[in-house]
Amino acid sequence: MTKPLNVELSTELAQTVKSQAKTCFDNAHRAALVTKGAKYVQGFLVYAGSPYKPIEYSWLELEDCLVDPTFPHLHKDADRLFYFPAQRLTVKQLKAAIDEAQEDYPDDEALPVYGDAPYEFYGDRMLGGKEYALAFSEAEAKCKELNKPSNKSKATNSDTADALESLPDSSPN
User: Are 71 and 78 in contact (CB under 8 A)?
Assistant: First the structure.
């Protein structure tokens, strides 16, 4: 069972590290550095609605809960967020991975960390190994479950398709 998200601690930590929207990896990295016993976690975040697919994401894991320093920027209810971990790193491991990435690829971002090769590819995103494949698969299934079209949507989509078919062809000859 997934640990619950601690909204209060997430919000407090977001203020402490001055988290910013759309920078979950950096937010989680900075938060891990100031949170005793935290593990930096990378994986996928899923919720109903746009973008209708799993989001590569990062948060912290404590012994009894999850802490997401980017949570205040999501503008979502905590009970409607689903986290799928692919990789957990201690602060020591995280620092070592960042140091190695900065040394090997000084012009690239050090985060996210993908672990050891071989890597697998999913669409246009490079991800880590089997742990990422499993987390992505589980996140994708949850995303499909949350974003099932309703019968009303199906009828609307069908009606829209019929209407579009009745329009003259505007493609060049």
Answer: yes
Nearest to 40, CA basis, from 107, 104, 112, 102: 112
End-to-end CA distance of the chain: 58
Give the Cα separation of 36 and 38 in Å (integer). Answer: 6
Query: Which residue matches tokens 């109903």?
Result: 48
Orientation angle between helical segments 7-16 and 24-33, nearest 10 degrees: 90
User: Which residue in this structure is represented by tokens 């698969």?
Assistant: 137
pLDDT tens across 85-123, in order?
999 999 999 999 999 989 988 998 999 887 666 566 555
Residue 4, token pair as written in the block: 């619950």
The residue type found at 71 is: F
Q: For 18-35, how does the pLDDT look when each residue is reduced to its tens digit (9 = 90+)?
A: 999 999 999 999 999 999
Neighbouring residues of 65: CB distance < 8 A, sequence distance ≥ 6: 3, 4, 5, 6, 9
Q: Percent of the chain at pLDDT above 70?
A: 78
Q: How high is the mean pLDDT of the chain?
A: 84
Q: Is the dihedral of CA 127, 133, 135, 140 positive or negative?
A: positive
